[in-house]
TrEMBL record:
InterPro entries: AcOrn/SuccOrn_fam, Aminotrans_3, Aminotrans_3_PPA_site, Class-III_PLP-dep_AT, PyrdxlP-dep_Trfase, PyrdxlP-dep_Trfase_major, PyrdxlP-dep_Trfase_small. GO terms for molecular function: identical protein binding; N2-acetyl-L-ornithine:2-oxoglutarate 5-aminotransferase activity; pyridoxal phosphate binding. Binds 1 pyridoxal phosphate per subunit. Pathway: Amino-acid biosynthesis; L-arginine biosynthesis; N(2)-acetyl-L-ornithine from L-glutamate: step 4/4. This is Acetylornithine aminotransferase. Keywords: Amino-acid biosynthesis, Aminotransferase, Arginine biosynthesis, Cytoplasm, Pyridoxal phosphate, Transferase. Belongs to the class-III pyridoxal-phosphate-dependent aminotransferase family. ArgD subfamily.
Length: 402
């Protein structure tokens, strides 16, 4: 019999009762070091007192009014984000996929408003993940996510990630924009070759295309800058953000320059919940902490330390870990055994980390992770590697090691 909750997830049989910073506690009292972080969402960990206070203060006053009225918290948050990014304007959403939907609509509408209705196709990249709505599964191009859902929404042309020549070759008179993750998350924590984003920017400028970045996973401090594109000095025309921006409260945003947003006039887009007072109260509180002096320095310091220690673990356990990669605290362990085996072994050691494509285990700790917790994580990863090696000795798996 079907479960009451639609069974689209193979859920791990753990029930959590509460969280404390980087730790999750089950209903039967077991503690797990949480390097899943709600899939790069809980940038400030669990039950952060400052966020809890912001949410409960707002909850006592006003939850929801709709976008038919002004929402002061949203105006304030937009002004603050505008002050620290390329953006002149933004639309608040409830999720990443909705932020991407807004970005895709906006890119098409920009070309329409510029007198080019024929320019409505968007170049995307293999391994991309942009969400699970009909438009975003078409943009992502993952056959597994498209199968059975009828005709894929037209308008997306996919080329290999990191391949500037392929992107250039894919531009036609119908191209409106290029959509890319500065660092692919679900695709396996893939950092593109240096010069890739700069090259895409130049290509967009040359051909009159918009550069649309998906920073849903890599944004909001995750890579050690507020947004990942800052590392390479490239600014987009449009950018989708979500995950970390709400710290666990469902929230996203589509940021844009005034020029890119010029087609999005009165009545062209909307959302009942998007940017509601509860979300905006939490969003402002998240921003208070992420923009505080030293926050990003901490992310970079913890990243350096973690990457160093992980490189040593890889050297000691090459039959389990093939490569350590990523940026900031968006890190990936490409495995020499099935990545799912490492995920399981980590859980047996009391640590949670999600998988990704390309046989990768992701490490997505809350950005407030301490030096001590980084040390504990490395010990648990090492212990998980030993567990797997012991099993490999007991029952060698043909072809599992590289
Ligand atoms: C998670 C994710 C999305 C989709 O976000 P949802 O909130 O699940 O809709 C889009 N793009 C990237 C890069 C993501 O990691």
């Amino acid at each position: 019999m079907i479960t009451a909750v639609l069974p689209t997830y193979a859920r791990i049989d753990l029930e959590f009762e509460r969280g404390e910073g980087c730790w999750l506690v089950t209903t039967d009292g077991r503690r797990f070091l949480d390097f899943t972080g709600g899939i790069a969402v809980n940038v400030l960990g669990h039950a952060h007192p400052y966020l809890a206070e912001a949410l409960s203060e707002q909850a006592k006053k006003l939850w929801h009014t709709s976008n038919l009225f002004r929402i002061p918290g949203g105006e304030r948050l937009a002004d603050r984000i505008k002050a620290v990014t390329f953006a002149d304007t933004m639309f608040f959403t409830n999720s990443g996929a909705e932020a991407l939907e807004c970005a895709i609509k906006m890119a098409r509408k920009y070309q329409f408003a510029s007198g080019h209705p024929e320019k409505n196709r968007i170049i995307t990249f293999e391994g991309a993940f942009h969400g699970r709505t009909l438009a975003t599964i078409a943009a992502g191009g993952n056959a597994k996510y498209l199968e059975g859902f009828g005709p894929a929404m037209p308008g997306f042309d996919q080329v290999p990630f990191g391949d500037l020549d392929a992107a250039r070759a894919a531009v036609t008179p119908e191209t409106a924009a290029i959509l890319v993750e500065p660092v692919q998350g679900e695709g396996g924590v893939r950092v593109p070759p240096s010069g890739f984003l700069k090259g895409l920017r130049a290509l967009c400028d040359e051909k009159g295309l918009l550069l649309v970045l998906d920073e849903v996973q890599c944004g909001v401090g995750r890579t050690g800058k507020l947004f990942a594109h800052e590392w390479v000095g490239v600014t987009p025309d449009i950018m989708a953000v979500a995950k970390g921006i709400g710290g666990g409260f469902p929230m996203g945003a589509c940021l844009a320059t005034e020029e890119a947003a010029k087609g999005m006039t009165l009545g062209t887009h909307g959302s009942t919940y998007g940017g509601n007072p509860l979300a905006m109260a939490v969003g402002n509180a998240v921003l208070d902490l992420v923009l505080a002096d030293g926050f990003l320095d901490h992310v970079n310091a913890m990243s350096t330390r973690l990457v160093q220690r992980l490189a040593e673990v890889r050297d000691r356990h090459p039959s389990v870990i093939a490569e350590v990669r990523g940026q900031g605290l968006l890190l990936g362990l490409r495995c020499a055994v099935p990545a799912a085996d490492l995920v399981t072994a980590l859980r047996e050691e009391g640590m949670l980390a999600p998988g990704a494509s390309d046989n990768v285990v992701r490490l997505l700790p809350p950005l407030i992770v301490s030096e001590e917790e980084v040390g504990i994580a490395v010990e648990k990863i090492e212990a998980a590697c030993r567990r797997i090696e012991d099993r490999l000795v007991a029952a060698p798996v043909q072809g599992a090691a590289e």
